[in-house]
Design brief:
Length: about 350
């Protein structure tokens, strides 16, 4: 039984390959952070080694050892995470470090040996976009002459960071965000969330169940979100000097914690979008369902045209940051567009 939630198409594709004995030597799992890519990779490793009737049975010793991360033939190649990198951003917040060529050499040595305790070696590279140029080159050679009894799973949120030659040697499997009611139901049924928690976290998760589970299990996540929202609301009410100081701080932070800063901008976007929805009387569509009173207050305090302009500016700023335009300048321009509350 496959346990990954809501990825029926991806699971069906893998099951077909297993049933027909036509699995690829290498897969590329693509999708947003915390949508289930890592879980699916582990379950593929289980299915390939399972000794039960309905692989992955989750019960046999192979399945259990893989789930516990102690199976000798299933290896996850990753980067040092260096603690939690950003407020809302579990999967991407890790500092930008590369998977080195030494790590690839180690894999080459491992895959040249027969599987030790299972039928098939599975090498999971997560995140594959952390393979640097040199490591991608070295890894390509392994992909070109795949050893028997080995399946590679490359996991990424940023497939564009991988070379075309790597893409062409991997079978691509897309994982899409889940519908929110499905996240909500899974949180209640599988992770004992209260109806209120499930309702809120499903909306904040943008359909990424893994994020919602992490936020359910670690209260730091929601606390950081509240703090970040307070900060942006204070900045909107504050003066220009304050906003520029903030822009400069955020620009510095962007150098080391790129994904975390982008995640903060997404949070801002959701907040101001909610303010507009409230102003339009569409309360049932807001994301920040736990902060309805504050949203209602802001909807009365801010001018719709100003908020709309800021949202456009926010989208442009995010684009500039992704394209590596001068971060400080982009953030300063954004700060100039922050809507100001009507004076009481
Ligand atoms: Zn099994």
């Amino acid at each position: 039984m496959w346990r990954v939630v809501g990825q029926d198409r991806a699971v069906a594709a893998l099951q077909r390959g297993l049933a027909e004995g036509k699995l690829a030597h290498a897969y590329l799992f693509v999708g947003p952070p915390r949508v289930g890519k890592g879980t699916l990779a582990r379950e593929l490793a289980q299915a390939l080694n399972c000794q039960g009737g309905d692989p992955p049975c989750q019960e046999c010793s192979q399945c259990r050892r893989i789930a516990a991360g102690i199976h000798a033939d299933v290896q996850v190649v990753s980067v040092e995470t260096g603690g939690d990198g950003g407020p809302f951003d579990f999967a991407q917040g890790r500092p930008h470090k590369d998977i080195s060529i030494e790590q690839i050499r180690e894999i080459e040595r491992a895959v040249s040996l027969r599987p030790f305790e299972g039928r098939c070696r599975v090498i999971i590279i997560d995140p594959a976009d952390a393979l640097n140029e040199e490591a991608q080159n070295a890894f390509l050679k392994t992909l070109e002459e795949p050893p028997p009894n080995v399946v590679f799973v490359l996991v990424t949120t940023r497939p564009q960071a991988l070379r075309a030659t790597i893409h062409s040697r991997c079978q691509r499997v897309e994982l899409a965000p889940l519908p929110l009611p499905q996240v909500e139901a899974a949180l209640r049924e599988g992770w004992q969330a209260t109806p209120g928690q499930a309702h809120l976290l499903a909306r904040l998760s943008r359909g990424c169940l893994g994020w919602a589970i992490a936020a359910l299990q670690d209260e730091k996540v929601l606390r950081a979100r509240r703090e970040e929202l307070t900060r942006i609301r204070n900045l909107a009410a504050g003066g220009i000097q304050e906003r520029f100081t903030d822009a400069s701080k955020t620009a510095k932070r962007f150098q080391g914690e790129r994904a975390a800063v982008l995640a903060v901008l997404d949070l801002w976007r959701e907040w101001w979008r909610d303010v507009l929805l409230m102003a339009a009387g569409c309360e049932e569509s807001v994301t920040n369902v736990d902060l309805g009173d504050i949203l209602r207050g802001d909807a009365a305090r801010y001018d719709v045209a100003g908020v709309t302009r800021f949202l456009r500016s926010l989208a442009a700023c995010k684009r500039y940051l992704e394209e590596n335009v001068n971060a400080r300048l982009a953030l300063e321009v954004l700060m100039l567009e922050l809507p100001a509350p009507r004076s009481a």
